[in-house]
Amino acid sequence: xxxxxxxxxxxxxxxxxxxxxxxxxxxxxxxxxxxxxxxxxxxxxxxxxxxxxxxxxxxxxxxxxxxxxxxxxxxxxxxxxxxxxxxxxxxxxxxxxxxxxxxxxxxxxxxxxxxxxxxxxxxxxxxxxxxxxxxxxxxxxxxxxxxxxxxxxxxxxxxxxxxxxxxxxxxxxxxxxxxxxxxxxxxxxxxxxxxxxxxxxxxxxxxxxxxxxxxxxxxxxxxxxxxxxxxxxxxxxxxxxxxxxxxxxxxxxxxxxxxxxxxxxxxxxxxxxxxxxxxxxxxxxxxxxxxxxxxxxxxxxxxxxxxxxxxxxxxxxxxxxxxxxxxxxxxxxxxx
Length: 336
Ligand SMILES: *Cc1c(COP(=O)(O)O)cnc(C)c1O
What we know:
By secondary structure, this protein is an alpha/beta fold. The protein folds into two domains: 232 residues, Type I PLP-dependent aspartate aminotransferase-like (Major domain) (Aspartate Aminotransferase, domain 2, 3-Layer(aba) Sandwich), CATH 3.40.640.10; 85 residues, Aspartate Aminotransferase, domain 1, CATH 3.90.1150.10. Helix content is 41%, strand content 19%. The chain has 14 helices and 13 strands. Helix 1 runs antiparallel to helix 11 and helix 3 crosses helix 10. The relative contact order is 0.18. It binds pyridoxal-5'-phosphate. The site of pyridoxal-5'-phosphate has 13 residues, from helix 3. This is Aminotransferase class I/II-fold pyridoxal phosphate-dependent enzyme.
C-alpha cells in the first residue's frame, strides 16, 4: 500500500469532479465570457460575504495580487514569521510590490492585535509606511493551527482604526471553519481580501480565488494580466472548483479525524519525542532520529511524508486518504 501524506495538494480529481469539468460551459474568461468562471467567482464571494472575486491559477498568485492591491512601493506589511506569503512565495512581496515585511513571533503562527499594534510605524520619513496586515488561517507552518473569528475581530478593529488593510491567506480556510464552527460569511466583515485555495483539501486540480470588493477585484484583474494569469477557457478548471465547494467542504471533518487518529498513534511510539496538538489536517511531530532517516524508513513501508526541520516531520491528511490507509499507517507507526 502507498499512502501519500506529503501534502493535501496531491489529490486527484474524483469521478464526479471530472464529470463536472468535462461538461462545463466555457468562453473566453479574459473577455469575461466564461460563465463557469463567473459562477465560481460569484459563488465564492457570496460564501464569504464579499462583493466580488477573481479566479487565479494558484494561491501564490491570489496572495501576491492582494498584496499588490493593498500596498504601494515603499510600504511595509506585517505578518507572522511563519507566513506563507513571506517564506514560500519566493520573495514575491519585494519583487511584485516593492514592499518590506515586518515579522512577528506569534504562537504557532497566530498573532494578536497586542503584538501588531507596537509594530505599526509612526508617520516619519525614516520609516516605511505600514499599510497591510496578513493573517493565515489555518497556519501551515503552525501545524494547521486556527484563528477563531473572536481572535480576528480585535485585529480587524486595530487595522480599521489605524488605516491598515487586512488580508487573509485562507489557503485552508475551510479546514479552519470546520474546526472553529465559525461562519464563512462573517469573514467579509473583517477582511479587505480573502484568498481561498481550491487545490488543497478541497481537491480541485488547480485554482484559487481572491475575494474583495468590486473596485479591488477590477484592479486585481489588471495585476493578474500583468503576471500572465489571464486564462481563456478556464471554466473547465473552475468547474472543479465549484464541484469542490459543493461536495468537498462538509467532508473535511473526516480528514481532521484521520489526523487525530494518526497523532494519537504517534504519541504511543518510542521514536517520537513530541506531537504538536492537532487542530485540523496537519500533524507535526519530532523524532529521536534525524527526520531524513525516519522519512526513509517510512517510504520503505509505503508512507510518503515530508520534513519541516532536522528532527520534525509533517503528515497532511486529505481527500485521497481512506480509512483503511489510516489503519495501515497506524499499524506501521507502531512497528517502526
Ligand atoms: C499552499 C498555500 C498557498 C498557495 O499555494 P499555491 O501552491 O501557490 O496554490 C498559500 N498559502 C498557504 C498557507 C498555503 O499552504
